[in-house]
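Thread: Modeling a multi-component assembly for a lab meeting

Hi all, long-time lurker, first post. My supervisor asked me to bring a structural picture of a complex we are working on to next week's group meeting, and I have zero experience with this. I have the sequence lines for every component (1209 residues in total). Could someone generate the structure of the whole assembly? Inputs are pasted exactly as I received them:
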Amino acid sequence: MEFAELIKTPRVDNVVLHRPFYPAVEGTLCLTGHHLILSSRQDNTEELWLLHSNIDAIDKRFVGPLGTIIIKCKDFRIIQLDIPGMEECLNIASSIEALSTLDSITLMYPFFYRPMFEVIEDGWHSFLPEQEFELCSSATSEWRLSYVNKEFAVCSSYPPIVIVPKVIDDEALRKVAMFRHGGRFPVLSYYHKKNGMVIMRSGQPLTGTNGRRCKEDEKLINATLRAGKRGYIVDTRPLNVAQQARAKGGGFEQEAHYPQWRRIHKSIERYHILQESLIKLVEACNDQTHNMDRWLSKLEASNWLTHIKEILTTACLAAQCLDREGASILIHGTEGTDSTLQVTSLAQIILEPRSRTIRGFEALIEREWLQAGHPFQQRCAQSAYCNSRQKWESPVFLLFLDCVWQILRQFPCSFEFNENFLIMLFEHAYASQFGTFLGNNESERCKLKLQQKTMSLWSWVNRPSELSKFTNPLFEANNLVIWPSVAPQSLQLWEGIFLRWNRSSKYLDEAYEEMVNIIEYNKELQAKVNILRRQLAELETEDGMQESP
Amino acid sequence: MEHIRTPKVENVRLVDGISSKKAALGTLYLTATHVIFVENAPDARKETWILHSQISTIEKQATTATGCPLLIRCKNFQLLQLVIPQERDCHDVHASLIRLARPVKYEELYCFSFNPKLDREEREQGWKLIDLGEEYKRMGLLDNYWQLSHVNRDYRVCDSYPTELYVPQSATAHIIVGSSKFRSRRRFPALSYYYRDNHASICRSSQPLSGFSARCLEDEQMLQAIRKANPGSDFIYVVDTRPKLNAMANRAAGKGYENEDNYSNIKFQFIGIENIHVMRSSLQKMLEVCELKSPTMSDFLWGLENSGWLRHIKAIMDAGIFIAKAVSEEGASVLVHCSDGWDRTAQVCSVASLLLDPHYRTLKGFMVLIEKDWISFGHKFNHRYGSLDGDPREISPVIDQFIECVWQLMEQFPCAFEFNERFLVHIQHHIYSCQFGNFLCNSQKERQELKIQERTYSLWAHLWKNRTDYMNPLFRADHRQTRDTLRLPAAPCNFMYKFWNGMYNRFEKGLQPRQSVTDYLMAVKEESQQLQEELEALEERLEKIQKVQLNSTKVKSKPSEPSKHSGFSTSDNSTANTPQDYSGNMKSFPSRSPSQGDEDSALILTQDNLKSSDPDLSANSDQESGVEDLSCRSPSGGECAPSEDSGKDRDSDEAVFLTA
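Re: Modeling a multi-component assembly
Sure thing. I ran the full set together rather than chain by chain. Output:
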C-alpha cells in the first residue's frame, strides 16, 4: 500500500489539540491513509477524526522543540496541534501535505470506505433519469428521452440519457452539439406543469466572429414555443463578455436567427473571481478584531453577497418569465456547467414544491448538478485557504447552497429540509467518504466505476436515523411558487457556514431544540386525542347497539 | 381643527413605501389627529391611517404631470408619497400637516382625545400595573445598606428626578444635597439596580462639576457611601460613557469627570458612546440607505458602514456588558454617568440590568425597566422624540438604540426573552405615537403637573391586555439562559450586530421574511393548549361512560364534536407572495399588468390577521389581497384600540417585475 511510504511517523503521543470553544485536549495523534486522528484515550472525550481530503492548507511553527501545525480545513474550520519534537512535527506535516493532495482519485477515501450501516436503498439507483422523466411525461408528450449520448460520444459532460423535444431526432441533436460549446446542446431542465412551459439549458452557441448559424439548433429551441409566443434566452454573461466570446469561437444567439427569442444578459461571475470572493469572505469572518466598521467593509469588499444577489435575481427572473409570462426559457453562459446550473436549479426551488422536499432536492442535485456535469472534482479541489490557485477552483456549488439558504430563511416553513442538510451537502462536496461528488461528470464517474466501488451519499442520508437530523420541524407543504426578496436588506451572511467555527451556537441550538419540542409535544397530544376519540366512538357505538334492539 | 384648511382632497395617489411600484387612487382626509387615505377601489376601500405625531418630515417635491407629490417620512420608519392633483390643494395639505405634525401644547396630542372606552377604574388600574415601589422591593434591597430617600420630595433637590429614590444608608440628606450641587442639573448618584446575589449595585448620576480642579467633599462621601453599601468590594467603578475627548472638553465649562486622586477607592473608566447629535445623524444616514431605490449589495453595506449605526449599537452594548460583568463577576458596584445622565446613562444602565436580571427579560419586567431607567429618571421624551414642536437639535433616537440593543440580544439568545420582536416594535411605535400618556413630557414633575394619569391611558395596560400577541414561543422560564445572567462571549465579535430589517424596513413588506416562525410556533402552542383541554375532557367522558357501562345503565352520551384540527391558522402554505422587480432597469422588457387571480398572489395570508389587537401595527402583516375588515376602525375609537397608524392595508409590490 502506497500510503505507508507517505506516513513517516504514524503516531505521536502528548499532542495537544486546540479548537475554538473547546478546552484543549491532550492525546495521541495517529495518521492513517485517509484520516488524522487524535484520541485522548479517555472515555467520553470526543476524538478528532479528520479526513485528509478535508485539509485545505497547513502552517507549521516552531518554538524550541515544540512544533505547532495549524490545519485549515475545506469546511473553514481551523485547528491547531501542538506536537512535541521537531522531527515528529515535520514528519506529520509532510505526511498531511502529501495525503491531502493525492493525485489519483482512486486513492481517495470513498474507494476504501466500508459502511458500518445497513443499506436500505442504494442511492446510486435512487434518482434514475427514466424515473425523473416520468414525472414530466405524465403531463406532456412533447418530450422524449434520447440515448444519443450513450457512449458519451456526442457530449462528454452530459449523461447518457437526456430529455429533448420529441420532434427533434438524434441526428439533429448531433448537429446541434457541433454548434454548442462542449457539445452541450439544449436539453430539458424543468417542465412547468402549470403552463407547459420549460427551462432548457445548454452551452453557448459557437457563432464565432462570422455569425455562424445552425438551423437544427434554431429548430430545436423553437420546438418549445407555442404558436405566436416568444421565449427568453437568459445569458448569464454581460453582453460585452458574450460579444468577446465570439473571438474565441463562442457567442450568443443573434436576433436575426432567433426572432422568436428575447435575449437577456445578466452578469454572474465565474471561476477565480468567485474563489477570491470566498477567500476574502472567510478571511473577514476569521478576523477577530473588534472594529465594527472594518467588519462591514470587509464583508462588502468580499463581494460574496453581491454574487448571491446576482445569482438569485437571475433565477427569480427566469422563474418569473416562465411562470408569469408563460414563456419558455433557454439558459446558458459559456460552458453551461456553472452559473447556468445555479440558475436552472434555483428557478426550480422557486417554482417547484417538490424540489423543496428532501428527496426532491436530492433529485435536483442529482439532475441539475451531477448528471448535468458540474465539474465537482475541479471546483471543490480547494477551498478558502488554498494558496496554489488553480484556474478551475470555484465555490459555485456553495453559492448555490447559500442561495437556497437565503430562500429557506425567507420561507422557513416551506422546506422539508433544514439548514443542516445544506451544510452537510457542502461538506460532502469538498470531502467525503461517499463517491457521489467524485469526478467531473457522468463519463468520468462511469470510468471510475463509482457505482460498484463506492457508496452513494444518498444511501446514507436517506435512512430514517439520518433524515431526522435534516428534517425541518416547521415544514408544511406549500404548493405555491415562492418569490424571495433579493433586496440587500433581505440577504444575510450565512452564519451557519461562515461563522460556524467562530461563534458558539449553543443558544441557537437550544432554540432549535425548543422549537422541535413544541412541535413534538403538539403531535403527541394530537395522537393521544385521536386515540381517545376513537375509543369513545367505539364505546358509544357499543352503547348504541345495546340500545337498539 | 383650525389648522386644517382642506379636510378632504379627492383623486390623490398614494405610493406606499420605497419598493412599491403601484400608486393607489383615493381620497385624502385630514382630521385633528390623523391623515387618512381611503382607496377608491370599490371592493377593498383600503384605508391608510397616519397619526400626525408620527410624521417626521413632509417634503414637497417637484410637480409632475400627474400632480404635486408630498413625501411623508414617519418616525416609525414608514414612508409615503401622496400625489395631489392640484397645486393649491397640495399647498394647503402641506401647510396643514406641517402645523399638525408640530403641536405646541400637550393638549393637542392624541392621548388627550384617545378614548379606548375604559371606565375610570380600569384606567386607574392600568396606571397601577407597573409599580416601581414594588420593583425596588423585588430587587431585595437590604435595609442596613440602602434606604428610600425623600430628600427630593416636591422636587426640591432635582426637578428631573423622581421624588422617591434609593440611596446608600450612610448617605445623609446633607451628603445628598451637597453632592447634588456638584453634579450637572443636580442629578446626584442614586440607585438604578441592585444585584441581590452579591450586593453590588448600579448607580447613576450626571457628570461632576469638577472643572480642572474643583472638589466636593459631599460628593466624595456619596461615592464612598455607595462603596460601603457593598461590603463585598473595596472599590467602585465610575464609568463615564462619553468619549474621553468630550469629557475633557466639558472640563473647560466647569464640568467634567471624577479625578481618581480625589475619590478614594474608585476605578475610573471611559467607555465612549457618541452624543445625541452624532446618533441623530447616524440614524439619518442609515435611513437614507434604506430609502435607496434598488440598491446594490455594495451600496447597502457601504451605506450601513458609513452611517456608523451598528458601531454605535456596539458601543452601547460594550458599555452594558462591561457594567454587567463588573457587577456579576467582580462583585463591584458601578456608578454610571454621561453628561446629564439621562441619555447614554439610561441606555447603559438598562442594558446592564437586562443582562443581569432575567426579570427584565419578561414582558412585565421589561415595562418596569423602561419605567425605571427611562421614565422615572427623567429621560427627556418630549425633546428626544419631538412630541411637541421644539428644538430639532434635541431630537435623537436614544431609546430606539436601547430597543435595538434588546433585539440584538434576542437574536443571540432566542430563548431568553419572554417577549417577541413585535413587542419591541410596538413600544417603539408608541413612544412616538403619543396615543398613551406614558412617554409624555420630560420628567415626572411635568407629568404630575399635567395630571397625565387622570387624563390619559397607560400603554402598559394596553400591551398587557394583548400580551398573547407579544409572547416569544421559545421562551421557557426554566431554561438556564432564562434564569441567569446573559453571558456574552468575552470578546464580542462584530458580526454579532446585524441590521434590524424588521424595524427600519418594517413597512416594506416585500423585504421581510414571508413566513414567521414566531407566529407559526405560537399557533402550534395555542393548539397544544386546546388539545390539552380536549384531552382532559375526553378522559373524563371516557371514564364516565366506562362507569356507566359497568353499572349497565343506559345513558346515551352526546356525540363527540368533529375534529377540527386541520393545520394551523397561521398555515404558511397560503403565503401570499408576488415576485419583485428582478429585472432591474432593463428597458427591453415589455410591461405587463399584474396577473390577477394567480394562485400565489390571490391567496390571503391569514398568518398576521390573526394577531389583531394591534392590527395596523403588526410588523409583518402582508395582506396583499387587501381583503380587510375596516369597520371597527374609526378616528374616534371603536371597540378595539383604533388606528395606531396605517399600514393595515398594504398592497405592496404587485406582480410587476417588469419596468416599462
